[in-house]
Amino acid sequence: MPKQRIHLLCNAHLDPCWLWEWEEGAGETLSTFKTAVELCEQFDEFIFNHNEAILYKWVEQYSPELFKRIQVQVQKGKWNIMGGWFLQPDCNMPSGESFVRQILIGKNYFKEKFGVEPETAINFDPFGHSRGLVQILAKSGYKYYLFGRPHAEIFSLPEKGFIWKGYDGSEVIAYRFIGWYNAPLGKAREKVERWIKEHPDHLVGLVLWGVGNHGGGPSFKDCKDLRELIQSTNETEVFHSKTDSFFKELQEEQKTFPQLERDLNPWAPGCYTSQIRIKQKHRKLENDLYMTEKMASACALQELLEYPTDEFHQALENLLFAEFHDILPGSSIPTVEDTALQILDHGLNIISRVKARCFFSLCRLNENPSIDAVPLFAYNPHPFPVKHIFEAEFCLPDFNFEDSFVLPKMFINGKPIISQVEKEHGNVAVDWRKRMVFMTTLPPSQITQIDIKTDTILPQRPQPNVKINNGIIEIKGDNTHVGINTKTGLMDFYRINGDDFLQSSAFLPIVIKDNEDPWGSEVLNYKEIEGVFSLLDETEVPKICGIQKDKYPPVHIIEDGEVRIVVEAIFKYNNSYIVIHYKIPKVLTEIEIQVRVFWFEKDRMLKLSIPLPWKNTEYIGQVVFGKDKLPGEQYEVVSQKWVAGYSPDKNMALTIINDGIYGSDFANNTIRLTLLHSPAYSSLPFKNRPLVPQDRFTPRMEQGERIFRFWISGGNAQERFQVIDNEALAHNEKPMFLSFTPTQKGKSYPSAIMIENPSIVLSAFKKAEKKNGYILRLFEPTGNTQKTDIHIPPLDLSFPVSFQGFEVKTFYIDTLQKKVFECNLLEEEIKD
Prior knowledge:
Blueprint (H helix, E strand, L loop, with lengths): L3 E7 L11 H21 L5 E3 L2 H10 L1 H13 L2 E3 L14 H19 L5 E4 L9 H6 L5 E4 L14 E4 L5 E6 L11 H11 L5 E6 L10 H13 L3 E5 L2 H12 L4 E2 L15 H26 L7 H14 L11 H29 L10 E8 L5 E15 L4 E2 L2 E4 L2 E3 L1 E4 L8 E12 L3 E8 L3 E2 L9 E2 L2 E5 L3 E6 L5 E6 L2 E2 L7 E6 L15 E4 L1 E2 L5 H5 L9 E6 L3 E10 L2 E10 L5 E9 L4 E8 L6 E6 L2 E4 L7 E2 L3 E6 L4 E7 L4 E5 L2 E8 L26 E13 H16 L3 E4 L14 E2 L5 E7 L6 E6 L6 E7 L4 E7 L4 E7 L4 E5 L9
Parallel strand pairs: 1-8, 1-9, 2-3, 4-5, 5-7, 6-10
Antiparallel strand pairs: 6-7, 11-18, 11-41, 12-17, 13-19, 14-15, 14-18, 16-17, 20-21, 21-22, 22-23, 23-24, 25-26, 25-32, 27-29, 28-29, 29-30, 30-31, 31-40, 32-39, 33-34, 33-36, 35-38, 36-37, 37-40, 38-39, 42-45, 43-44, 44-47, 45-46, 47-48
């Protein structure tokens, strides 16, 4: 019988912030790393393991001498750089592209500073793991994945490791460590001895130890105790080790592993929604960063400006830090929430300046401009045409102080496009600032000039002209028929070509019983309805709207024109209010829903209920570089930019795009989108103690105003799933509009990039990290084998690409040789 071999993995799990702010995290990093390097110097057999580039960056900046000592220990093999990511992020909510950047930035840093590249990715503390990670890991040079959650009590997994298989067929060997990553101070030997006693059947074992969460790591006493244990143990070999060493021996011992083809969820489902402002602003920075990279690449390829690498890196590190697994999930204290919003705003400010430079460099006035027209420029960053209803504001050439109303008309290349004027954002009581709503198709990856003529003058602003039949506001479009019930404020039907895609009473806000715990650490779902919002009494409407009337109907039409009708409905529950805007098109089938929430409930959750008309409906959602059937009937589930109800029997689907929520469930054939919940900050249950003090006021999350936007569309299921990913991308990475007169004239610059297949997603178009060329990352989102042609007109370059289902492919574009090379996610060329 071979001896049992126990790998001791000393670490110091160190949250950069959580119950403390980042400055304290940086200080604890210095203290912990100083202790660890001293113990490496004192104990010959001791090995310290740590990951997260952000912590090493802090040491490099704040204590250069300590950093040099660590470099020496890494060279000696006494200090192991494990993981190699920028930090341990949430592992469900960042986009696939963001995970790529977590690894790319982290690995590049460790290779540059320490000359190492780990083969084992680690995420000890995140609250679940998307299956989409597997492909990213495999294509970033990782063979192994070490993680801790979900716990064995709620999620059964093979104890001796398993092959984790991704959506595209990629594989890594994964292992959930037994026990926890910490050991109480001075109790490491006890933990190891207990582990050995409880797991005699593990011939190759792994025990994690070290004080953690707030740092700490190893202690002199623990190192001394473990030295004595190592020397006194005969039946079992115990030794200090590294992550890669453990996995290689485990692989040799096991030979074969069971396979797992699913995500590693759920745990802490409240974190899919907690601190929703961070989630929304994180999504916005993701969108703006990756969109502006595409714009900057288009500009640089056409020699309009130099690619702003340094600015992008600053904004990217802001994004990556905000993805930390106690920031993005919303499990931190209020001051950390504030800091996270500041960091995200800093990134957004950087990107807004870069975006403006790119936009202005791309804009040229038509050679024969219309003298009596105001120019409006639009930039579509996507490699495919975008046909949507758009909104943009501009100013009339001068104030109109009369009681008349200027009705602008819009033209592209002299041809009219349908448009209407809606209430502008401001409230200046003069006819000057205009908000245009219009439907058009923007060509891929280029500027479009729209001319606005302002010579049509009406006696007064047009008023809505919609009839209400039997209490139903009915709107009929080209292919749609929508009904809003004035007695409930809810959508009673949504039909496309006569087919129903909703049941009545859709978009009902419902209130779910919750508690003070933002993680939801002891629950797997949120099902118990406490109550529902109902229409506000007409006598209360003026107070909420801020209008000078005695009463006003809670359901009313606020906009009506060629493009769409906007219906406003106002609801109440206890001390909270909701204003819903139904933006119903006359020309397309997609409906926009805006939900403005004024929330003053505590320890409750808010969901938006959307009942479907079919039986046996499946709940589908976008996940990291994939789509999946979501177990929403059992659990609160996590998804990304869209979810869908799919009827295999009818071959129909209702898709719902969002711009910044992640949680939902599916109950009684009803999609229930989770908008927010209002637990206490960082309130974690322990034994039977109260979750918050019972002798004072304790703040709750999400008190106040929050805004949510959704775009719903129904149709043939295959057709919906072919285009939904790029539709969601276009609603998140929005085309840019600006009215001004450029200083240069001439023809528009050509499209910078075009992808012929409307399903294929352009995940990234950016300058390479270490070369002068560009990186093109593409993704197949439907799960089917597909082909497409890629065109880059500025380089006169075209090439075909083939995909397996859910495959991510990355290409390096050599702009000098005008050649394309396939590479991995680390931007290294793939050799045949």
